Amino acid sequence: MLKKLVGITSAIALTLGLAACGGSEKGGSTDSAGSTSAESEATTASVGEQVDYKIIGIDPGAGLMKITIDKVLPEYGLDKWKVVEGSGAAMTAALKKAYDKKEPIIVTGWSPHWKFAKFDLKYLEDPKGVYGGAEDVNTIVRQGLKEEKPDAYKLLDQFKWEPKDIEAVMNLIQEGSEPADAATKWVSENQELVSTWTEGVNKVDGEELKILYVAWDDVIASSNVIANVLESVGYKVKLIQVDAGPMWAGVADGSGDAIVGAWLPTTHADYYAEYEGKFEDLGPNLQGTKLGLVVPKYMDINSIEDLKE
Question: Residue 72 has what DSSP assignment?
Fold first, then answer.
């Protein structure tokens, strides 16, 4: 009897040992490389399956969203895909969460933006050119500003900087500085450039000026910087945060004096066309921007066309 029990016990031990060698704690079988079936399924899943066919977007009023939804998805045949509406802050929060876990994610992106300094990212190639070439960021002012507030007009007209300048301000904000404090620091450290904006501008005595802006990281940075410089020559600047539509409408109807975050010719094209003739375009204050779909570099994908797989 004892011999029989020992035999049964040995058989059970052998069975358990084989099970341990041939399975995983999660219940998946292993392949010859030692990967579980669950792991193999994850690695063989398409990019769409990995991200649930979702592209993390920003605020619904942005031209970047309109291009992505109305043009990019149909042009590339991405019928299964959905662009999730949100905000710039929500998009970067989702990106950080996925990036920290090395998880796949696709977001609507633009540069200059602090996320490219914070994370190792790449734009997906756009072989059809749907997003267009590089955009400019223009300064738009209300009609009559030149006559009523000529020195503000002159300063705004002379406002020009480069992506590296605005990204420095954006990084200060991202690292914890208040936008106004970041602007003060950057202005104090870049007086040579700032002096080209204020050249020939006379001091004023507390005249009020309203700058309208959307809550995009780059526009927050540029609006605070220009407000700081305008205040240095005596203007009392009021920064008013609104959505893109009201921002353009405000300059068009004169309730706002200026905006320095007009992305053209693509992102704000609809607003430009809607209100054309009711504002003055002072031209680019920043050149060398870009729009598109952005992913972490650890993702094995390089083109928007790859999303069809």
Answer: I
